[in-house]
Design a protein that fits this description.
Helix content: 40-55%
CATH class of the largest domain: Alpha Beta
Order of helices and strands: EHHEHEHEEEHEHEHEHEHHHEEHEEEH
Number of domains: 2
Radius of gyration: 21 Å
Distance between the termini: 51 Å
Shape: globular
CATH architecture of the largest domain: 3-Layer(aba) Sandwich
Structural class: alpha/beta
CATH topology of the largest domain: Aspartate Aminotransferase, domain 2
CATH superfamily of the largest domain: Type I PLP-dependent aspartate aminotransferase-like (Major domain)
Largest sheet: 7 strands, mixed
Length: 392
């Protein structure tokens, strides 16, 4: 490989949210990677930093061109310049959409289990989540369209947050599925916010489908949230975009993002995004191969060494969604036990709601040595948990 994905990087004492843990603990929870970003991005940041003046910034043509190039060549979506609006992050954009496109006490539909911060964007703004459970069957998740139709028919539901690809389950929604989602939302006058931040992290040979590319209906009722931050491990740079084809929705989002003061780039946000989308393709493809191998290794280990845990096989994201239902339905207690006994810090599934109480979410985006350490700790925790419960 051209790039180094094997050498561990010490992230302690860097004000890292992920690594702000006690000595001896191994964090594999929050979704950022333990790989250095593409060198091409680092070069762009260092070049800008060397200038020495970090004043206010504009959004140049190169930024628009980079998004258009990436989505056109990678994902087959032609994005006219006028569809794009800069923002500092996907979650700020979603929170803006909740405030601007709904009114207090209305409901926002989410398909659970789903990324927990969506609930913050909804509930912190005085709205209510309308939870539509995904069907979990034979170790896989799928959408219940009858339940979705019924949930959307609630007149208080005016917005749906779609996770595409899905976090935490790693499902890549098909074009046919997304088309039907769009038709149901159109029929019930519901706008769709499509969070597509994980779109570039798919297994080799697998591609995601942009919601706005599916049909005229999907395009006209949607706001797509996109960013290089997840795929290129630059979340701290705070650089993202919304893609809004519909003119009326576009104006509302543009106005909302500016009102919320999240529509202006910091000094490094533009250069990092441009470098990622114009020069980061080769690095990303190597990363995808590494993540695929890590996930396969984790699946194999779990099936071989941890018969009480069932991994949900997926083709997107670098997250492992592990069914611990044979051990417990209290993932909060189990995740706390794992951390206390072994130092392994993983996410309890309960915070993603739905059937998440019987799951753990584990971040596999790390050097193989780190992954192996985490899996060994998980095995030790399972053995201690089983022994403790046998004694009761």
């Amino acid at each position: 490989m051209k790039y180094d994905f094997e050498t561990p990087v010490d992230r302690r004492s860097t004000c890292s949210l992920k690594w702000d843990v006690a000595d001896g603990e191994l964090p594999m929870w929050v979704a950022d990677m333990d790989f250095c970003t593409a060198p091409e991005i680092t070069e762009a940041i260092l070049s800008r930093a060397s200038h020495g003046i970090y004043g206010y910034n504009t959004i140049p043509d190169e930024w628009y061109d980079a998004y258009r190039f990436w989505w056109g060549t990678r994902h087959g979506l032609d994005i006219p310049r006028e569809w794009l609006v800069f923002c500092t992050g996907v979650i700020p954009a979603i929170s803006t959409a909740v405030r601007k496109l709904t009114t207090p006490a209305e409901k926002v539909l989410v398909e659970v289990p789903v990324y927990n911060t969506f609930f913050n964007s909804i509930e912190n703004n005085g709205r209510y989540p309308k939870m539509c459970p995904l069907i979990y069957e034979n170790g896989e998740y799928r959408r219940d369209f009858d339940a979705l139709d019924a949930a959307l028919s609630d007149p208080q539901v005016t917005l749906m947050i779609l996770c595409n690809p899905h976090n935490p389950t790693g499902v890549i929604w098909s074009r046919a599925e997304l088309s039907r989602v769009g038709e149901l939302c159109r029929a019930h006058n519901v706008t769709v916010i499509s969070d597509e931040i994980h779109c570039d992290i798919t297994d080799p040979g697998f591609d995601y489908v942009p919601f706005a590319s599916v049909s005229d209906t999907c395009r006209d009722i949607s706001v797509t949230c996109a960013a290089p931050t997840k795929a290129f491990n630059i979340a701290g740079i705070q650089t993202a975009a919304v893609i809004v084809p519909n003119e009326a929705l576009h104006h509302k989002m543009w106005r909302g993002l500016n009102t919320d003061e999240v529509a202006e780039p910091n000094t490094f946000a533009i250069g990092a995004a441009v470098a990622a989308f114009t020069r980061g393709g080769e690095w990303l493809d190597e990363l995808r191969a590494v993540i695929y191998e890590n996930k396969r290794a984790a699946y194999d280990f779990t099936c071989r060494e941890l018969p009480d845990i069932r991994p949900v096989f997926s083709h997107a994201t670098y997250l492992l969604w592990l069914d611990i239902g044979k051990l417990t339905s209290d993932s909060v207690a189990f995740a706390s036990f794992v951390r206390e006994k072994t130092g392994l810090f993983v996410s309890n599934g309960a915070q993603y709601r739905g059937n998440g109480g019987s799951f753990l979410r584990v971040n596999a985006a790390c050097p193989r040595k780190t992954l192996d350490d985490g899996l060994s700790r998980l095995k030790a925790a399972v053995e201690m948990w089983r022994a403790q419960n046998l004694q009761k």
